[in-house]
Design goal:
2 copies of one chain form a homodimer. By secondary structure, chain A is an alpha/beta fold. The first copy, chain A, has a single domain, classed as Rossmann fold. Chain A is built from 11 helices and 6 strands. Chain A has a 6-stranded mixed beta sheet with strand order 1-6-5-2-4-3, sandwiched between helices. The interface between A and B is medium-sized, with 27 and 26 residues. Chains A, B: Keywords: Coiled coil, Kinase, Transferase.
């Protein structure tokens, strides 16, 4: 099976409508991938250790998507086995007054991982060309200027060996409504319910257009977007996990060679051992 | 008098050799500018207050130059009267191990001022395409790639209303030697003496070439470089101060209009006052 159909590279004429949010790439039942999922989690752990040890690359994983598309959920499921010493999740809400006074890349850049580290962004600098555009705080011209700055920013990161993986969690409006209802009707889920979700929902079409434009303008071959069907949570998690593992393995990360002085000291230890005997 | 001759805009074929480090733009004695200097400091205070109040722009002032070119000195002299609530000076030394693991813009971006604020950088992200290039830690291709990223970064800041002012403090090798000698021979100045300055001095030509290339590739009309003759400290301070004030005044910063509710409350207060009387 191949996840390339969800990969949006440079120059792609993306139409979100052409992607079915309920698609599962031919997999009929989540039981079919249970074993593979387990194996993928092990490979992820292995890769993260190599990344941490080699310090050759950093890995930034950006999650974007409509409300209820499962950004929190996917982070929880995919990274559950990972060493927290080498991984951080960052969630970006409405900017504080101080943050809003800065250039729009300032607050997120602080959280971009170093080489050796991985970080997941739950929302990101992309919001500054999405929510602001939909609500008319910035016009189309400013949105395009920001998207260009984002492309330059990600180019810089890539050239500095910070890989940028971008996921758009693609859901249908029906799926979203079901989740909102669920949150409203279920007392244990009230804490998740945000009345503004109902307001934002009215702008569905404008958001889809803004996403389409953002993805088109920032999809490059070095840093493509992945449009992941997300109406089925199990498939969403599987597609993200597998893409991430495959991208990490492409880096061919290896453990660093033992330092020369380690070898010398081992030799000394051995000699010391034998001289004591003689 | 006009300081435009020191301004390097887009496409300029800069030759540092064509600039005399001892030039004083026809001013024979620093006494000639004493009154103007005083007036400039007052205008700077005024402009900084407007910047702070209006929050419409930020101002980043980058100082680069060889060892002993007076980066510390100029910051001390130019910004002495400024409100520390709206200004910060940042000095960038050798990156820590943690910083070095990040992309090369990470540590400096954190210190880029917000709108309403001013910041002076004593050395900056430019070092990542200067000292590294001279010492061969990065090759020419990587240096050019970084300079391109810097241009994109500054473009983004400008479009976000963070103005970037760049000064190259231009000294002669003879002036530098005199300063180093001074530091070695003068017990009260020993703390300023760094033996590596003598080492770095051997790479004078390579540094001049690296600066020339860096300035050419990052001078834009929105964010030009200013090559300031710095063998005379008084002229260096004067040229920097005047350029800074003129750039701030170009922004036509105004105090914000009183908020509507202030007017309403004033009205209430007046009415309350009269009703008490009646």
């Amino acid at each position: 099976m191949n996840l390339n159909r969800y990969r949006i590279g440079a120059g792609a004429k993306l139409k979100l409508k052409a992607f079915d949010p309920a698609d599962t790439n031919g997999i009929e039942d989540k039981k079919q991938i249970e074993d593979e999922q387990k194996e993928l989690l092990e490979r992820l752990e292995e890769q993260q250790e190599r990344l941490f040890a080699s310090r050759s690359h950093g890995m930034l994983i950006v999650f974007q998507g409509m409300d209820c598309s499962g950004k929190d959920g996917v982070i929880k499921k995919v990274f559950r086995g990972i060493d927290p010493g080498g991984f951080r999740a960052h969630s970006f809400k409405k900017p504080t007054e101080e943050e809003a006074q800065h250039d729009f890349l300032w607050r997120t850049h602080r959280s971009v991982p170093a080489r050796g580290q991985m970080a997941a962004f739950n929302r990101s600098y992309y919001e500054e060309a999405l929510i602001t555009r939909v609500h008319g705080t910035i016009d189309d011209k400013e949105a395009r200027r920001r998207l260009k700055s984002i492309r330059h920013f990600e180019d810089m990161l890539e050239s500095q060996r910070i890989r940028v993986l971008k996921f758009f969690l693609h859901i249908s409006p029906e799926f979203q409504l079901e989740k909102i209802r669920d949150r409203m009707e279920n007392p244990e889920k009230w804490w998740k319910f945000d009345p503004s979700d109902l307001e934002e929902r009215k702008h569905w079409k404008a958001y889809q257009d803004a996403y389409e434009d953002a993805i088109r303008r920032t999809a490059t071959d070095a840093s493509p977007w992945h449009v992941v069907p997300a109406d089925n949570r199990w498939f969403r998690n599987y597609a993200v996990l597998r893409t991430l593992v495959e991208e990490l393995e492409k880096l061919e990360l290896s453990y660093p060679q033992p330092r020369r002085d380690v070898a010398v000291r081992m030799e000394e230890l051995k000699e010391g051992g034998s001289s004591e005997k003689s």
